[in-house]
Design brief:
Number of strands: 33
Strand order of the largest sheet: 16-11-10-19-20-31-30-27
InterPro entries: ACX-like_C (IPR049517), Hydant_A_N (IPR008040), Hydantoinase_A (IPR002821), Hydantoinase_B (IPR003692), Oxoprolinase-like (IPR045079)
GO cellular component, one term: cytosol
Distance between the termini: 66 Å
Organism: Botryosphaeria dothidea
GO molecular function, one term: 5-oxoprolinase (ATP-hydrolyzing) activity
Family: Belongs to the oxoprolinase family.
Largest sheet: 8 strands, mixed
């Protein structure tokens, strides 16, 4: 790895979100680390990225850069940017701010097509006598051409439409033969127009792609930028929290206002290759990020005897009840009522109410919780307190956020408890310890810039170019030379692209992959081909780990060749990521800013010390319960935890958590709500395994099956959302089998 560099000019990284734009800058004269960065957060508008750069330049250089005028980048070495609005740029061909796909609608309306007119052309190519073994292809017939992947095709009409369209003047041309067409997105053009000749100056401008790699802005494809914002966060925690010396895998937990994103990192980025976004199937590498509808603004409700969190969100307007705009109860209100958010904290601005000039209103939250508690007690004939109800909602929310984590780990054969939890996002620190306890995780890592880690991750990311080529051949001793030759050619092609972007060959590393599957199945697994490693055995091991079996006697088919060339970042954070011991010598006891009562489940109200993050020395230890605050986040250290301050992060170690008592004679609505999530997670994982291992189109594509959990007497407990038509009869079938 290259050694840490001192930037000669400003290095700026930006995460342009739908609501806020975060900006982090490495300042000249200091070594690159989180402590050397200036940061800025501002509300997202069309011009937010250029405005963020203007502000940073004024702070760093002391010069004036007037608003509305083009900005000189003479003092800027590089700009790296990601966005959560690229989905809109891809589908609508514009750059107006938008949210991510509508995850929470009960009725989904398919979007309109992207084109206004279709002109049909006669079929231009057909495969001739092709089989997976390719043993009956005709090789000498007139008009047949052997493709680069070995198939024989008959060309009926050469494809010249793309060239004709370009001559006519079309600027948006996507050819099916091009895996990732480059498009000139409106918001990129708008960004470039804010600077003095960005295209020809010596400032590197790169955009984050969904696969976690940067690309020169001229080469950005909307197809590859759908998850560029969340990808920055994954790169951020992977580069700052993963310790290569012990290899403990990480679970990324990014909790925002509306939803929570989770991911996994075990030494390399994990990708998926086909996703559906806004009704459009996108076949391109993306980081494997799962989303759940639980965030700080998720609405709390009591329905059918259960505590419900989301999927509805209060969003930013009207926002939670405490925002003074008549909003509903949310997770934020629950944290506020339980003392986990301090409305008097100097870091929380007075931006609430109709005139955006008032503090958070805890009385509004308390009033709605009083009303809900009365309704719940009347229905269950109980004596729950407001605190128990609020804590119950947080427990249900935490369990709902554990479900996608279990899908990423347990459903793929990994033990959740053998991971560390890397928490980030504005609300992550308030829930990280509780999630870790639920999952059996013993260590939580929270970077000091966790609330803006997506922007910081842009600064740490590598420049990446991928090449893929279809294969459709059987993996065998005879095909290994063909495979090696194809991968070598793709490697040279990918590396040339990076060199063309002024990446030094010494910084380029290339990874080679094969997309492998068993004959008769269309579930492929991407396996990295490593030197002196048994690729076939690695595929079988991966299949066994994820699905629990290996089909005997089936050939292995190579679907695709994939090469990923990586221009390594000049920033080396390996020493910061390692869990190094604190400095020698006596560490002063951390000073307590104040104390306040905080409610903890099974403990009640506890006088809890409050610490300022920026006043804590490296090596300081904080014993739970405690609150750690800074300008953008609150970190809750639970009573069963101990926090240690490292150079760039807070490391929280947990002992075994306390278990809530479960009555065997009386139904507890909180426990019922929690177990509803757990049983549903079991049913969903059953369905996922069945779908991925099936060779039936009815099961794999139509989801024509049901996965259900029944009680010992045959009663329905949980059913996954597949095709539920046969569930009514399943209950009778199960009961009959029990009785007979």
């Amino acid at each position: 790895m290259p050694s840490p560099e001192t930037p000669k000019r400003l290095r700026i990284s930006i995460d342009r979100g739908g609501t806020f734009t975060d900006c982090v800058a490495s300042v000249p004269g200091r070594k690159t680390s989180s402590s050397s960065c200036s940061r800025s957060i501002l509300k997202t508008t069309r011009y937010a990225p250029s405005e963020a750069i203007r502000r940073v330049l004024e702070i760093a250089t002391g010069k004036k850069f007037p608003k509305g005028k083009k900005i000189s980048l003479a003092d800027v070495e590089s700009i790296k940017m990601g966005t959560t609005v690229a989905t809109n740029a891809l589908l609508e061909r514009n750059g107006e701010p938008t949210s991510r796909p509508r995850l929470f609608d009960l009725a989904i309306n398919r979007p309109g097509v992207l084109y206004s007119e279709v002109i049909e052309v006669a079929e231009r190519v057909t495969l001739e006598d092709w089989t997976e073994r390719n043993d009956s292809a005709r090789v000498d017939s007139t008009g047949l051409i052997k493709g680069v992947t070995g198939e024989w095709v008959r060309v009926l009409k050469p494809l010249v439409i793309g060239e004709i369209a370009a001559e006519i003047g079309f600027t948006q041309i996507s050819l099916s033969s091009v895996a990732a067409p480059s498009i000139k997105i409106k918001y990129i053009d708008g960004f470039v127009s804010g600077f003095e000749d960005l295209e020809n100056c010596d400032c590197r401008c790169e955009f984050m792609q969904s696969d976690g790699g940067l690309v020169e802005f001229k080469r950005l494809s909307g197809l590859r930028a759908v998850l560029s914002g969340p990808a920055g966060g994954v790169v951020g925690y992977a580069r700052t929290c993963y310790d290569e010396s012990n290899g403990t895998p990480l679970i990324g937990f990014d909790m925002g206002g509306t939803s929570t994103d989770v991911s996994r990192y075990a030494g390399q980025l994990e990708h998926v290759f086909e996703t559906t976004t806004a009704g459009v199937i996108i076949s391109t590498p993306q980081l494997d990020i799962n989303t759940v509808a639980a965030g700080g603004g998720s609405v709390l409700s009591w329905r059918n005897g259960l505590f419900n969190v989301g999927p509805e969100s209060a969003s930013s307007h009207p926002g939670p009840a405490c925002y003074r705009k008549g909003g509903p109860l949310t997770i934020t209100d629950a944290n506020l009522v339980l003392g986990r958010i301090d409305p008097a904290c100097r870091f929380i601005p007075h931006i609430f109410g109709p005139n955006a000039d008032e503090p958070l209103d805890i009385s509004a939250s308390r009033k709605l919780f009083d009303e809900m508690t009365a309704v719940i007690n009347s229905e269950i004939d109980g004596k729950l307190t407001v605190e128990e109800v609020a804590a119950g909602f947080l427990s249900v929310a935490n369990e709902s956020m554990c479900r996608p984590i279990r899908i990423l780990t347990e459903a793929k054969g990994h033990d959740s408890s053998l991971h560390n939890l890397a928490s980030f996002g504005g609300a992550g620190g308030q829930h990280a310890c509780a999630l870790a306890t639920n999952l059996g995780i013993r260590r939580v890592l929270i970077h000091k810039y966790s609330s803006i880690l997506s922007a910081y991750g842009m600064a740490l990311a590598d420049v990446v170019h991928e090449e893929r080529q279809p294969a459709a051949l059987q993996y065998s001793d005879d095909s290994i030379p063909t495979i090696a030759d194809a991968l070598e050619k793709l490697s040279s092609k990918a590396e040339d692209v990076l060199i063309g972007q002024s990446i030094s060959p010494a910084r380029i590393a290339t990874e080679k992959y094969l997309s492998l599957r068993f004959h008769g199945s269309d579930t492929a697994i991407m396996v990295q081909q490593k030197e002196n490693a048994d690729t076939l055995q690695a595929f079988k091991d991966a299949h066994l780990q994820e699905f629990g079996f290996i089909p005997e006697g089936r050939a292995v088919i190579v679907d695709d060749f994939r090469v990923r060339s990586i221009g390594k970042s000049p920033i080396d954070l390996s020493t910061a990521a390692a869990e190094a011991p604190p400095p020698s010598g006596k560490i002063a006891s951390p000073s307590v800013t104040t104390q306040k009562p905080v409610y903890f489940e099974n403990r009640g109200w506890i006088e809890t010390p409050v610490y300022q993050l920026n006043s804590l020395d490296q090596g300081s230890k904080i014993y739970g319960p405690a609150l750690i605050l800074d300008k953008t986040q609150t970190i809750i250290v639970t009573p069963n935890a101990e926090a240690t301050v490292h150079l760039d992060k807070i490391v929280i170690d947990l002992t075994s958590g306390e278990k809530s008592a479960v009555s065997s004679t009386k139904a507890d609505p909180i426990q019922l709500s929690i177990f509803a999530h757990r049983f549903m997670g079991v049913a969903e994982q059953m369905g996922r395994a069945l779908q991925r291992t099936s060779v039936s189109t009815n099961i794999k594509e139509r989801l024509d099956f049901s996965c259900t959990v029944f009680s010992p007497d045959g009663g329905l407990v949980a059913n996954a959302p597949h095709v539920p038509a046969m569930i009514g009869s399943m209950a009778y079938a199960v009961k009959w089998q029990i009785d007979h």
